[in-house]
Amino acid sequence: MRSKWFSRNTALFILASELYAQKPTAAPACSAVSLDIALQAGGNYAQRVNDLTFKVKTLLPKSGEAGWTFSLEDAEGRDYIYPVNPPLRFNPSQYLGRAYGESARQSLSSTRELRFLLNKADYERFWPLVTNALWPYSAARPDKATEEYFTELGKLRTGLLRLKIVKSDVTSDDMIRSGEFTVEFVAPSDTHFDPQLKPYPEGCPGKIAAP
Fold it and tell me: Based on the number of CB atoms within 10 Å of its own CB, is 100 exposed (0-12), middle (13-18) or buried (19 or more)?
């Protein structure tokens, strides 16, 4: 009797294991869209992604070497990339060109992976912490401003932006002539991307790791 019980339960265990192994994997919980961008020096670009617009704007520093900055902006012109990509000062990650000690050639050779805020509610809740981290002497708890910023940053669910340099033309004296880029946006699958873009499944990024 015991032998029959053991055999029957072993068979059930094996069957359950096989059924589990055959179970299809869940679809990725995020979707992605990508943009292909080609710009001559001095050119600008804008493309609606969802309720945010990706913009590449010409940057003309005092030294005169043209480059670009890029942002993901809402209708009020607020950038959803900058707040969640420390350091908050002297950060060249949103520059395509000479900036903060990087040459234009170096800048246009570097792939970026940056986070972005997903919605207005997160932006408005998180922005005061950015302000406190930038100017802690104005914060309610100056000695905790940086810690509070990074603590909340680690809790946020964010999107992921990948910018890949496809081609660049930079002169020997570090002047940009042109650049070609591919930009991918990864966001939760319920994100309403612009109709002209074609979303595809993609794995979601993890939480932002503490420094």
Answer: exposed
Contact between 66 and 60 (Cβ < 8 Å): yes
Residue 95 is assigned to a structural domain of this protein = yes
Percent of the chain with pLDDT over 70: 85
Output the pTM of the full model.
0.85
Q: Which domain holds residue 55?
A: 26-202
pLDDT at 40 over 60: yes
User: Number of folded domains in the chain?
Assistant: 1
Domain assignment present for residue 112? The answer is yes
* Pair 134, 161: CB distance under 8 Å: no
- Looking at per-residue confidence, does 72 or 4 come out higher? 72
Helices 120-134 and 145-155 cross at an angle (nearest 10°) of: 150
170 has which bridge partners?
Answer: 176
Tokens 């170096």 belong to which residue? 106
- Which residues 6+ apart lie within 8 Å of 37 measured at CB? 45, 56, 180, 181, 182, 183
Interatomic CA distance for residues 161 and 181, integer angstroms: 12
Task: Specify if 55 maps to a domain.
Answer: yes
